Amino acid sequence: MKLRGHHLFCTALFSGHGYSESFTQKMTQLIKALKAGETLTVFAGADEVCSACPNRTAENGCALSTEDVEKRDQAALRVLQLLPGEKLTWEQAKSLLSLLNEEEFQAVCGGCRWQKEGLCSLPLLQQAVREDAQ
Known about the structure:
The chain is mainly alpha-helical and about 130 residues long. The chain contains seven helices and three strands, in the order E-H-H-E-H-E-H-H-H-H. The chain has a three-stranded mixed beta sheet. Helix 1 (about 5-15) crosses helix 3.
């Protein structure tokens, strides 16, 4: 499964809210696959999550802002110390996410729609990673 950098954060924090019903269903399926042991490949560009997003453009960009998405991806790869093409288990991804500090988290997620709606924060990420480990 291919996941772009910032979608590692989104996947860990996903709570059933999404851009559309099909998007929410796709995220739920992806998360089940990851938790069942499917390996993920860190990817640069439109990924499995994007495939169900109603904001995806014909050019595989984002109608909301391709530049913003790419900036978040670059920040995610930097703070998690990952490169495109690296393979991880969900356990490894959660372990990396659990080590983040507030500055690193904000570099990726600061100003995001989901953060503004109260669905995304470092404490929520830490809690989600902890609860998923149980």
